[in-house]
Amino acid sequence: MLALAPLLFAPYTMTLLTEALILGLFAMSLDLMIGYTRLISFGHAAAYGFGAYACGWLLLHTALPMLVAIPVAALLAGMLAIGVAWVCTQATGVSFSMLTLAFAQLLYAVAYKWTSITGGSDGLAGIPRRPGPFGLRLFGTRDGFYYLVVIVLLAAFVFCRALVRSPFGAVLRGIRENEPKTLALGYNTRVYKIAVVALSYALGAFAGALYAPFAGFANTELLFWLLSGQVVIMVIVGGAGTLVGPILGAAFFLTVEHQLSNYTEAWALFFGLMFIAFVIFAPEGIWGLVTARRAREYADGTPRTR
Amino acid sequence: MISQTGMTRRRVAGLAFAGAAGLALPWGIRRGIAAEPIKIGMPLALTGPLGSVGQQLKRGGEAWAKVQNAEGGLLGRQIQLLIEDTAGNPADCVRKAQEMVERDGCNIFTGITLSSEALAVVPKLDEWNAIFVSSDNGDGKLTAGALVPNFFRANISAPMGARAVSLYLRQSKFEKFYAIGMDYAWGHSSVGVFESEIKHANKNLVGSVFSPIGTKDFSTYITKIREAGADALYIVMAGDDFNAFLGQAAQYQLPEKVQMLTEQMELSLLRAVGDAALGLVGSTRYCFTLDNPKNRAFVALWQKEHNTVPDTFEGEQWQALQVLAAGIEKAKSTDTAQLRAALETVAIDDIKGPVAMRKCDHQAVQGGFMVKAVKQEGTAHPVPEIIATYPGDKTTPPCNKETFED
Amino acid sequence: MGGQSGQPVTLLAFFVTQSLNALSQAALLFFLGVGLTLIFGIMRIVNFAHGTFYMLGAFIGYTAERVTGSFWISLLVAPFAVGLVGALFELGILRRLYRRDASAFLMVTFGLALVLGEVIRLAWGPDALQVETPPALSGIVLLAGEPFPVYRLFLPGAGTLVALALWQFLERTRLGLLIRATSQNAEMVHALGTDVNLVRSAVFGIGCGLAGIGGVMAAPLVTASIGMAATVIIDAFVIVIIGGMGSFLGSLIAAVLVAFVQVFGEYYLPDLALAFMYLIMLLVLVVRPGGLLGKEA
C-alpha cells in the first residue's frame, strides 16, 4: 500500500507523507519508553534535534554519503544517551520527566549559543543529500527518499516489535506494571531502563537524522520543548503501547495541523478542542478506534489490566 | 495467531494511511488548474511570538493587492495572495511554500517573516524555480554568504539599520557606548556591525552584553549598563523582550542618564511601552511620518482603510510589492527567469523615496532614517519624528558584505 | 564596579540592591509555582495550561484597569475571574477524568493551553498591551544614590502577604483543612461526608487564581503579551520540581533560590544566563530526586 503512494499522490503530498513517516518513527521510538515502560519523557526532542544536527553537520563538513551519515548520527546519539539515561533514571515519576526536559533544554541552550557548530538561531541550511556509497543516487530524489524512509520505518517497526515480544520486553512490561515487584524478582530494573531510554533516543535520533537531508536544514525548533510535548501527544493520541498507534498519531497530528493552518489562523483553537475530545471520547487513541477493540491487550499480546 | 494478527494489523495500518492520505487527494488533483491570476505566496508567521509582525505584513499585502486589483491588476491580471500561517516555524514555512509552488503553481514569494524561515527557504528557490522578494528579513547573510540568484531584498537590512545609527552618532556628542542585544544571530551581528562602526568613528564601546530570548527581568542588565558609565546605549532587541527592557529601564530612570538608541523602532513598540519610550532614538525601516507625496497618499489610504496610521512592516511590505510590481511590468511577464533579470536593475520612487535594486547582491539601495520618539498632541503613545535622513549609497554596505570599510 | 558619577558603589549597597531585584523576581516565580504545586499536590494533575492562566490574568487585569481606572481593583478582579475559569474547566472537563491515567490530564491541559491561548489572542489581539503601574507605586527610592523602582519593593511585599494568607488559609480554615486532608486521603474525606469534587474544583480554581495574580503583577514589568504563557510555563515547572511537587514551602524556597542564582549569575556569568535554571534543577534532582522538600522520590 505504502509502496504505491508515489503513483497516487501529488509531489507535495508525498513531501507531507514523508515527513509524517519520519515523525512516525520519532513517535514510535518514544512509545518504547511511554507505552512499554511508563517512562514519560518531556525531552524527546533532544533525540530528534541531536540526530538532525549531527547528520546535518556530517553532511555539510565531511564527505560522508547520506546513507552513512544517518546511521552514524543515530549511533552517536545512542551512545551519548546512555549517559543521559543514567542521570535521568536516578529519579522516577515526574522527576524523571523533568530531568529529561532539563537535558533537552540544556541542549537547546547549547545549540543556540554554539553558533560556530550549530549555526546558532539560524541553524544549518543547505544540507545535501550526498549520494553513495558506490555512487548510489537512488535515495536522493523525492520519491527515492520516501522509499528510504519507508524502509527504515518498517525495519525499525519489525525490530521494536521483536524487542517488546522478547524477554527484554517482558521485563519492561514488568517495570511498567510494578517496578518494586520486578526488582524483587531479581531484575536490575535500572539497567533495563537505561537500555530502553538509550535505544529510544537512538531511534528518535535516527528519525532526526532522516529529517536533516529531507528538509535540507536543521534548526533549534527541533530541540525545543514544544516538539517534545507534541510527540508525547502523538504517542497518546495514536495509542500508547501499540507501536503502530504512535505512527498513526504522528501522521494524524501533522496532517491536521497542516490542513487546519491552511484554512484558519485560529487553528490552534480547533486543534486543542480536538485533543480534549480525543481524551474524553477516544481514550485508546486512534489505534484503539481503528482496531475497534477496547484494547484489551497490548501489541505484544499481554492483557491490559486497566 | 501471531502472524495472522500481524498481517491484519499491517493491512489495517496501510488502509488507515490510505484513508488519511486520501483526504489529501483532492488537493493533489487541483494542481494544474488555470493560473491566470498572478499568485503571490505569503507563508507568514501569523501566530506565535512574531505574530504581530506577520499580521502587519498580511495587512500591508492585502491593502496593496486591493488597490492593484481595483486598478485592473498587473499586466491585466488580478493579484491573488496565498496567505497561510507558519507560526514562525521554518519547517512549516518550507512545507507551505513548497505546497504553494506545487499545488497552486506559485512562483513568487514575499512576506516570509523570520530570518530562520527565510534561510531555510532560500536554498530551495532554485529547485522550485521561484523568486522571493523579502519585505522583512534583515539578516545580513541573505545578501552575502547565503545569497542565491532568486532572492531579492527590498527592505532595509540589519547592517543598513545599524549603519544609519552609527552615521548619526558620528555627528553626535556621545563618546562612550554600551550595547545590549538579544542572544541570537541578529543580536550578535548587529552589535558586531555597531562595534566596528564605533571604532571607525574613533569612539569608545565600553562593553556589551547579551540577554537570552524570553528574558523577563532585566534588572541585572540595567545594573551593568548603569555601572559601565556610558553616555549612550545601543539596543538590539525586538518584541516582548524589547518592551520589557524599555519599560523596566524607564522604571529605573535609566533614560535620564543614558541616551537610548536602537536599530529598529516601530509603532507597536511605542504603543506597548508608552511614555517609557520617550526620547528613544533609533533607525526605522519605515515610519508614517516620512514626508513625501507618495507616503502621504499611502498614510491617507491607510487611515481610511484601518482608521489608524501604518506601522513599519506594513509600509515595508507595501514597498516590497511595489518593487515586485515594477519588476513584473518591466519584464512584461511573471516567468521566473525574465522576472529575475528585470528585478536585478529595477528602480522606483515610492513611499520611502528612491529605491534601486543592486545587481551584484540583490539588495535594494535606499535611504536610511533616524527617528526620535516624541510626544504628540492627541496620541496616547509617542510617535517617531524624523531627525535625520541618509542617502542610500552611504548606508548600504559594499556588495556581498555585512560590514563597512570606513 | 562603578557608579554613574564614577564613585565606587560599596559592595554592601550592590548586594542590597541586587538582592531586592532578586526578591522581586522571586515573588513572581512564587506566584507561578505555588498554584502549580498546589494543583499537583492535591490532585496529581500536571497543569500544562498554568502559563496560559497566568497570561489570562495579565490580560484581564489590563482590561479591568482600563475599565475601572484602578490597578488595585484589577488586582482583585483578575485572580477571581481566572480562578473561575479554572474552576469551570475542572467542573466540565477534568471531573470526567479522575478515574483515568495521568496521561489523560496531560493531554487535556495541553489542549486547554492551546484553546485558551488562542481565545486570548482572538479576544485581545496579537499586540502587546501596556499596563501601567499604579500612581502610588510608580516612583523610585534612592538606594546608595541610585534610583530603585518602588514597584519592585511592592512585589516581594505582596508575595509575602499572599504566602502568609495562603498558609493561614490552609492551616486555619475549614476548606483549607479539607484540602489538606484530601491530598492525604481523598476516599476518607469522601467517606466522612464531604463532597470531594467541590474541594477539587476549589483547589484547581485557587491554583489558577494564584497564577492569575502572578500575571496581573507581572504585567507592569513585561506588558500583557501573547508570548507570556510559553516563556513562563517552563519556569513554573522548574520551580515546582526544585521545590518538590506538592510542597508549598518548597515552592517558596525554590523561587527565592532560583531568583538569587539567576540575578547574581547573570551579573557575573551572563553567557550562562539561559542555562542557570536548568542546571539548578539538574543538581537538585540528582541529589534529591523528589525536590528540596518533596515527598515522593
Describe the structure.
The complex is a heterotrimer of chains A (306), B (406) and C (297). Chain A is mainly α and 306 residues long. Chain A has helices at 5-8, 11-37, 45-61, 66-88, 93-113, 115-118, 142-165, 167-184, 189-215, 225-238, 244-263, 267-281, 285-291, and strands at 124-125, 217-218. Chain A has one domain. Chain A is 72% helix and 1% strand. The model of chain A has no long low-confidence stretch (mean pLDDT 87). Chain B folds into two domains: 35-156 and 291-365, 3-Layer(aba) Sandwich (Rossmann fold), CATH 3.40.50; 159-284 and 368-395, 3-Layer(aba) Sandwich (Rossmann fold). Chain B is 44% helix and 19% strand. Chain B has 14 helices and 15 strands. In chain B, the strands form four sheets. Chain B has a seven-stranded mixed β-sheet, sandwiched between helices. In chain B, strands 3-4-5 form a three-stranded parallel β-sheet, with helices on one face. A three-stranded antiparallel β-sheet of chain B has the order 11-12-13. In chain B, strand 12 and strand 13 (364-366) form a beta hairpin. The longest helix of chain B has 28 residues, at 2-29. Chain C has helices at residues 11-43, 50-68, 71-92, 102-124, 151-172, 174-184, 186-191, 196-222, 228-243, 248-268, 276-287, and strands spanning 140-143, 146-149. In chain C, helix 3 runs antiparallel to helix 8 (196-222) and helix 9 (228-243) runs parallel beside helix 11 (276-287). Chain C is globular and about 65 Å long. Mean pLDDT of chain C is 88; it is low at 1-7. Chains A and B meet through helix 2, helix 5, helix 11 and helix 13 of A and helix 1, helix 3, helix 4 and helix 7 of B.
